[in-house]
Amino acid sequence: MDLVLIEALKVDTVIGVYDWERTLTQTLVLDLELATDIRPAAAGDDLAQTLNYAAISERIAEFGAQYSFELVETFAERLAEALRQEFGIPWLRLTLRKPGAVPAAGAVGVRIERGEQGAGH
Ligand SMILES: Nc1nc2c(c(=O)[nH]1)N=C([C@H](O)[C@@H](O)CO)CN2
């Protein structure tokens, strides 16, 4: 299985369960591993044959601006669903960190895997 990577992507969004969190934008930090077969793109040196990490990063920024969930779980689940559907990603691992949410921790967050590894190959 090949992977396209997006690491330490900063995403601005309204997120949180507390009243004060509903009034401001916070920055989440995302790592994504996106399964694909890179051989067709490599064979043809053709961006159209692979997952365009720039386009996906832009979509994630749009998603952050569009929604204002309470839980990081909801953000992760809904984003994974949207990316898999819109970009035809058979499997992904998404790590979402919310820096500063727990001052004593470097970051807190969630990690999810969705889809089937090897699907579509
Ligand atoms: N498992 C979770 N725990 C907590 C969340 C969350 O989204 N998932 N959120 C909060 C608050 O919004 C917190 O981030 C404010 O600092 C608390 N626990």
UniProtKB/TrEMBL annotation:
GO biological process terms held by the UniProt record: folic acid biosynthetic process; tetrahydrofolate biosynthetic process
Reactions listed under catalytic activity: 7,8-dihydroneopterin = 7,8-dihydromonapterin; 7,8-dihydroneopterin = 6-hydroxymethyl-7,8-dihydropterin + glycolaldehyde
Function: Catalyzes the conversion of 7,8-dihydroneopterin to 6-hydroxymethyl-7,8-dihydropterin.
UniProt-listed Enzyme Commission number(s): 4.1.2.25
Location of the Dihydroneopterin aldolase/epimerase domain: 4-114
Organism: Halomonas nitroreducens
NCBIfam families assigned: folB, folB_dom
GO cellular component: cytoplasm
Keyword annotations: Folate biosynthesis, Isomerase, Lyase
InterPro entries, alphabetized: Dihydroneopterin_aldolase (IPR006156), FolB_dom (IPR006157), GTP-CH-I_C/QueF (IPR043133)
Pfam families noted in UniProt: FolB
Pathway: Cofactor biosynthesis; tetrahydrofolate biosynthesis; 2-amino-4-hydroxy-6-hydroxymethyl-7,8-dihydropteridine diphosphate from 7,8-dihydroneopterin triphosphate: step 3/4
EC top class, as a word: lyase
UniProt family annotation: Belongs to the DHNA family.
Gene: folB
Name of this chain's protein: 7,8-dihydroneopterin aldolase
GO MF, any single term: isomerase activity
